[in-house]
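Holo model, flavin mononucleotide. Inputs:
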Amino acid sequence: MHVEILVGTMTGNAQLVAQELELGFGDEDTLITVTPMDDLGPEVFRRDAVFLVCTSTYGHGDVPDNARELFEALQARRPDLSAVRYGVIALGDSTFADTFAHGGLRFDQLLAELGARRIGERATIDSAGSELPEEAAVAWMRGWLEQARAAAVEA
Ligand SMILES: Cc1cc2nc3c(=O)[nH]c(=O)nc-3n(C[C@H](O)[C@H](O)[C@H](O)COP(=O)(O)O)c2cc1C
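Output:
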């Protein structure tokens, strides 16, 4: 199975999370690649992979700058993503109570609108919490990968 992690980040937390997942879970059965969202277009979703959108939140619950082009192109072009399976790791800071982790939530809603099917529940990671973001992500990833493998067998 190939899991392609698409990273939306401003100050590197989401990138660090993605790299920890690549190091911790990549093996002979599971290829994990980390791709920053910079300069990606909707065509990325044609790749033969399960996608893991790993993104932080800025502004008023917006996606980070390096994810904006991809997000807006998906909104404008509305490709049919019904063949796509994905998961979401949404990073944020719970002191932004009204927009907590909305960057990942927005991607989740948009991908679902375009027909893509989410695997498992969204991971919501709080950089104001006591746990390190990468540790929280590793704990969540074990269960998510099992569900992704089960979905790959179904397909
Ligand atoms: C200017 C600024 C605005 C932010 N706005 C939000 C927000 O609206 N909601 C939220 O949950 N987190 C918000 N955050 C927190 C970041 O999403 C959080 O620190 C995240 O871990 C950053 O990850 P990154 O280094 O991958 O960009 C904001 C942070 C900054 C510096």
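The beta strands are 2-8, 31-36, 50-55, 85-92, 117-118, 123-126. The chain has four helices and six strands.
Archived with the compound record.
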